[in-house]
């Protein structure tokens, strides 16, 4: 993609910034991709210095790939979907950032994902990866539900599934519930047989650690394990509840995004399944759609963030 | 209690060592209390230096209260019920400790609590405080279930109740479940109204933080809040499962210990309630009963710890 970009052309940069990495895409005004970049976390909860540096690093990579330089930062019209900016404090910190861009339009990573999935049209997204949450954007309304972190939120997410599995296995090994195939699968995956060793191993486990266990629940369920099937029914109920809430805005379509989508899809309610479509574009391209929408004054003076309905 | 202790008399020290504090009691051979002491955590998971120093500090306090001195450490026959020594690694570390006592008999804090509750006789205990677990000691058999830490274990505990409350309130505020009185109670207790503020407030909450919320569930249930009642039914089912497992050893009595006992008691199964008796003595006195049992060779050469059935 090393190419010459005409000097006068307006450039767009889309940022999908999460808790572990920051992905950017550089395009022209017609969304033709000119460059891409990838850097560390851009979530302000990890610190503004880290977040802004990740954004600048990834942006510079994208400029370089397009045959451009630092001097071209000032040409970039940037849409940024960032985890954490749904928190007003962090949103305000980012608004105060003396960035080098021509313009910076901020929203949540989830909102950008929704713009990408539906190319800026009305629709909804439900994320079911390590965490879980959902957003519907219909007409001028934006509704975001779920999320809130693990273990107190993110019900039905990968982390949630992993925690249910570990809880169930420990209870089963203690004779407090029936035997389950999940015990053998967990012992295989961790290499630990002993109840105490398993409990200690997960003593300070992160959401990511738990999410790694989620596939085992589905593996056991496929072999007719009843306790695993019960966990999936409960997890799907959480995702169905998110979908039902989003559907109060009557989105024409819903995209499921994240590692657990394919596994969960068959367990969702028929009314939800009927609305499912594949995401059309990536969150970072969605962030560019978002920036263009802001420029088109659709959202002018009213940058929507989580809970802004 | 500042008194003269005859030089030749055998002295006993009982230790109840947990994750936040270490409580000791000094007695003569007839369990007459001569002194007491209180110090920091004696859980080896916090580090052996901290644990052993806490034990020595609390022991010295008890000696001083009895008009004795450091020279009398070597007269002490010590029973220690310590959180964490159910983990073989920590048990071994403690066995290697060059302690100043005449003898040191180690077991889990839960086992010592059972000895205290039933004065060394057969019986069972169920702890339902910040954490939850149970132990039955019948004839030569010891069975310990539950525990394992939060959030992956300790089902039905104070921390578990608090987490269920926060999950339910966040889901309710997101419109994913019905309205609940628990929302208002949580907002009052934390002084936080906003969903995001609540979620952030508990982002790195400890088991102790969550356990502080547990009383709100019972408060809401008393006012006929359905979601709160559902949480209590689920929590009581966990404690009933622990009781049912312990009852396979046919303990003649069960003592419920911990902050949630009184609230949970009415929700337990009739067969469990029929066995409930108040704890007769404290865990630290139980640790002395344990030491005496070891000396009587009842457990000689076979110090029972968690999972030793």
Q: What would the keywords be for this entry?
A:
five-stranded mixed beta sheet; alpha/beta; Nucleotidyltransferase, domain 5; 12 helices; 9 strands; homodimer; 309 residues
Detailed description of the structure:
The structure is a homodimer of 309-residue chains. The first copy, chain A, is α/β, with parallel strands linked by helices and 309 residues long. Chain A has two domains: 11-119 and 280-295, ATPase, nucleotide binding domain (Nucleotidyltransferase, domain 5, 2-Layer Sandwich), CATH 3.30.420.40; 123-278, Nucleotidyltransferase, domain 5 (2-Layer Sandwich), CATH 3.30.420.40. Chain A has helices at residues 48-65, 88-96, 109-117, 158-173, 181-190, 195-201, 207-211, 214-222, 226-246, 261-264, 270-273, 283-295; strands spanning 11-17, 22-27, 33-39, 76-82, 103-107, 123-128, 132-138, 141-146, 254-257. In chain A, the strands form two sheets. A five-stranded mixed sheet of chain A has the order 3-2-1-4-5. In chain A, strands 8-7-6-9 form a four-stranded mixed sheet, sandwiched between helices. In chain A, helix 3 packs across helix 12, helix 4 packs antiparallel against helix 9 and helix 5 (181-190) crosses helix 8. The radius of gyration of chain A is 21 Å and the shape is globular. Mean pLDDT of chain A is 92; it is low at 300-309. The A-B interface holds A 86-88, 145-149, 151-153, 155, 163, 166-167, 170-171, 174-177, 195-196, 199-200, 202-203, 205, 238, 241-242, 245, 248, 306-307 and B 86-88, 145-149, 151-153, 155, 163, 166-167, 170-171, 174-177, 195-196, 199-200, 202-203, 205, 238, 241-242, 245, 248, 306-307.
């Amino acid at each position: 993609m090393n190419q010459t970009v005409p000097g006068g052309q307006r450039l767009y940069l889309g940022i999908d910034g999460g808790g572990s990495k920051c992905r950017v895409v550089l395009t022209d005004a017609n969304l033709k991709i000119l460059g891409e970049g990838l850097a560390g976390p851009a979530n302000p909860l990890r610190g503004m210095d880290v977040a802004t540096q990740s954004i600048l690093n990834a942006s510079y990579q994208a400029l370089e790939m397009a045959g451009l330089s630092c001097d071209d930062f000032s040409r970039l019209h940037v849409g940024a979907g960032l985890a954490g900016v749904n928190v007003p404090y962090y949103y305000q910190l980012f608004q105060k950032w003396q960035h080098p861009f021509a313009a910076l339009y901020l929203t949540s990573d989830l909102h950008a994902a929704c713009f990408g999935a539906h190319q800026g049209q009305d629709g909804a997204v439900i994320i079911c990866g390590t965490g879980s949450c959902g957003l519907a954007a219909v007409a001028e309304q934006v509704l975001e539900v779920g999320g809130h972190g693990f273990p107190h939120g993110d019900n039905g997410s990968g982390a949630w599934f992993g925690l249910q599995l570990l809880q169930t296995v420990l209870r089963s090994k203690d004779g407090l519930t029936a035997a389950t195939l999940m015990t053998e699968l967990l012992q295989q995956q961790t290499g630990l047989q002993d109840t105490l060793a398993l409990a200690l191993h997960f003593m300070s486990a992160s959401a990511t650690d738990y999410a790694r266990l989620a596939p085992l629940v589905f593996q056991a369920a496929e072999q007719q394990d009843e306790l695993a099937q019960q966990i999936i029914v409960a997890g799907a109920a959480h995702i169905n509840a998110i979908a039902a809430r989003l559907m109060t805005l009557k989105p024409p379509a819903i995209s499921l995004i994240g590692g657990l989508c394919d596994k969960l899809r068959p367990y969702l309610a028929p009314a939800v399944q009927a609305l499912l479509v594949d995401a059309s574009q990536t969150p970072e391209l969605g962030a560019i759609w978002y920036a263009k929408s802001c420029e088109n004054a659709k959202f002018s003076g009213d940058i929507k963030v989580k809970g802004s309905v």
